[in-house]
Design brief:
The chain is built from 31 helices and seven strands. With 662 residues, it is mostly helical. The strands form two sheets. A five-stranded mixed sheet has the order 2-1-5-7-6, with helices on both faces. A two-stranded antiparallel sheet has the order 3-4.
């Protein structure tokens, strides 16, 4: 065969290898995909995809619109089809990452020769091999595989980050301003999915602003706004009243509150400030958060990919352009800054960029080494990847078929009598998902607790149950004028009117327990039935069993998420028992039984500290001292723990003084 035939054969061989890579990625991810909702947010995003529903702030309009296309797939359960959308997004992201990787190689990314040489085909094969090694650690990452195989918005956010990078690098190569306009449109579209893109798109816009000039900059803003117009899907769908409709953005004011997250920042300030360390703004705390985030990334991707990426970033600066290096830096820095202190799942764009840069470093090494050296280096990298794979294998295994949150919520729904009303908050997403997608207990009337407590933040609740009308927008029901304060009057009025005609069950919450303590009885499933309370009630067996099941799970993100769901149920239950029984015995027993020993780290520090506070309120200082010392031995003490310790010490001193006087 001649030289031309050899070069064509080599080119087709490389193309076949590139195609097989994408097929292999798709097959691996499809094998991990299941038709269950792994956690509460996944249930919410399934509803967003199936019903074009409005998800939690900022609404995720882009995700809802595009994932809805997967529901037209001709077979498979609806949940599996939405998960399939994530698989497709991930495969497309790999394709974009590979194109970015090629653009870093001038002799390949910009190759336009109609008759490529055999040597260039070999170089392309070497770079493909290097990219595979750079991307290999992603398949050892539990966070990456979670996002790639289930309904979530972070994988789609990574896709838009890669699209911005690709368009910018193409512009660097061609100086064709159509790529800038394309990047602007992708930025607007991606912004409709997640606001984190602001911290990447805006700096990149100002980076290219001197090159664009006024007219082209104006066109770029226009295309960006054109892409961002997808956000109008939120009020349009909210008006159609889909089953979840988080935020009820049927007015301009509610739409702004949803998109800007103003509602949750007002209603859940403590929870939101704890995320990302926003409650502690000291330099020391921010440095600590950065170290924790770096550790999460290293645990997910291994210890060799990050150093290789740093080397590659310097190589891009020297051999490609300073602007290309700055693009990678902004993409990494913007993602890390926005999601500082979060779980590793939002760092998916960082994982992809590390795979590109790490593969670029390896391609430079492979291109300058002999065949023997390449084999040796490949074996060394596989050896370095082995500890990461072995460490993450239990969690990767636990992710397959993880159904505990959905199963426990289904058990909760099936425990209720037919045609009852169930008012819930922590189980709302899963209950709505099970009812509308899986067809579980469609006879139940589901109510959302915040909708009753905050009529100004949500569409006023209007029910017509067994001929009993209720309208929470009525002035006599709304009660308080400050929209950030819960309208207990609206909540109580709904329970009073509805419970006269139909059975009403309520999931306990710390806000509403004070009005429910003397007007409800606790069921074995862990919900309150509005009506005469029982004389003496213990911690529900259903919640205790759930705690034992979670404790038996291997340490993983999914166990943490299931434990968080457990805490949102256990803490309000402990509180209502304390209010009903007048002592903390059942509350302390329940929390310790559900959470286990503090060293197991099933529950948070604050939940275990709650047992100390119950003992203090009972006046049992000896038990409080034992519980606090046990907690201090196993967990790093927090400021709130120091305050409780000071209270305990002062009460112990007062007790000793009283004893000496007696």
């Amino acid at each position: 065969m001649g030289a031309d035939g050899d070069s064509k054969l080599g080119r087709w061989g490389v193309l076949l290898g590139e195609s097989l890579l994408l097929v292999l990625v798709a097959v691996v991810l499809l094998l991990q995909t299941r038709d269950t909702s792994h956690w509460r947010d996944a249930a919410e995003f399934v509803l967003a995809g199936v019903y074009l529903d409005v998800a939690h702030p900022p609404g995720f309009a882009t995700y809802a619109v595009f994932s809805n296309l997967a529901t037209f797939f001709p077979f498979g359960p609806l949940t599996w089809r939405i998960h399939l959308f994530s698989v497709g997004v991930t495969v497309l992201s790999f394709f974009l990452a590979y194109q970015i990787f090629l653009l870093l190689h001038p002799q390949q990314g910009g190759e336009s020769s109609e008759q490529p040489s055999k040597k260039s085909s070999m170089k392309r094969g070497v770079t493909l091999f290097a990219f595979c090694f750079g991307a290999l650690p992603l398949f050892f990452s539990p966070a990456f595989l979670r996002q790639a195989t289930t309904a979530e918005a972070y994988q789609l956010n990574a896709l838009f980050v890669l699209l911005l990078l690709l368009c910018a690098l193409f512009f660097e190569r061609t100086r064709d301003f159509r790529f800038i306009y394309g990047a602007a449109f992708c930025f607007g579209l991606g912004l409709g999915n997640h606001p984190a893109l602001l911290f990447i798109g805006v700096p990149c816009f100002f980076l290219y602003l001197p090159t664009l000039g006024i007219s082209r900059a104006t066109f770029s803003v226009f295309f960006g706004m054109l892409g961002f117009a997808i956000i109008v899907a939120i009020p349009i769908r909210a008006q159609s009243a889909p089953p979840l409709n988080t935020g009820e953005a049927v007015t301009f004011e509610r739409f702004v509150r949803l998109v800007t997250d103003a509602r949750d920042r007002h209603l859940r300030p403590d929870t939101l400030h704890a995320v990302g360390g926003l409650s502690e703004k000291t330099v020391k705390r921010q440095i600590s958060l950065s170290q924790e985030d770096a550790q999460k990334i290293l645990d997910e991707t291994g210890w060799f990919l990050a150093p290789l990426s740093v080397i590659a970033l310097l190589s891009v600066l020297v051999f490609v352009s300073w602007r290309a290096a700055l693009l990678f830096f902004v993409s990494l820095g913007g993602t890390l800054f926005f999601f500082r202190g979060w779980q590793p799942d939002p760092f998916i764009p960082v994982f992809f960029i590390f795979s590109v840069l790490g593969g670029f470093s390896l391609s430079l090494l492979f291109s300058r080494s002999s065949l023997v050296s390449r084999v040796f280096l490949s074996c060394a990298l596989l050896f370095l990847s082995l500890p990461v794979a072995l460490r993450n294998f239990p969690e990767l295994k636990s992710q397959r078929g993880h159904e505990l949150p959905a199963q426990t919520t289904e058990q909760l729904l099936t425990s209720l009598p037919y045609h009852a009303v169930f008012v819930t908050e922590s189980s709302w997403y899963l209950a709505r998902y099970l009812q509308r997608v899986e067809g579980v207990r469609t006879d139940l009337v589901l109510g959302y607790t915040p909708q009753l407590l905050f009529p100004d933040y949500f569409r006023p609740a209007r029910y017509l149950i067994e001929g009993v009308p209720y309208d929470s927008s009525h002035p006599s029901i709304r009660g308080l004028s400050d929209i950030r304060e819960p309208s207990i009057g609206a909540y109580v009025e709904f329970l009073n009117r509805t419970s006269q005609e139909i059975s009403v069950f309520v999931e306990p919450t710390l806000v509403t327990n004070s009005v429910l303590a003397r007007a409800s009885a606790l069921t074995e499933a862990g919900v309150l039935r509005v009506g005469p309370p029982a004389l003496e009630q213990g911690f529900p067996e259903g919640v205790l069993t759930l705690g034992e099941e979670i404790q038996q799970l291997p340490p993983s993100f999914l166990r943490k998420d299931a434990a968080h769901l457990l805490e949102t149920r256990a803490l309000p239950l402990a509180d209502i028992l304390f209010l009903q029984n007048g002592n903390g015995f059942q509350s302390i027993y329940g929390i310790r039984k559900v959470c286990g020993h503090p060293r197991t780290r099933i529950c948070s520090y604050e939940t275990h500290l709650k047992t100390v506070q119950y003992a203090l309120q009972d006046g049992n200082l000896r038990q409080a001292r034992f519980l606090l010392d046990e907690l201090r031995e196993t967990r790093r003490e927090k400021p709130i723990g120091r305050k409780v310790r000071q209270i305990l010490r002062s009460q112990e001193i007062a007790q000793r003084e009283n004893a000496s006087l007696d």
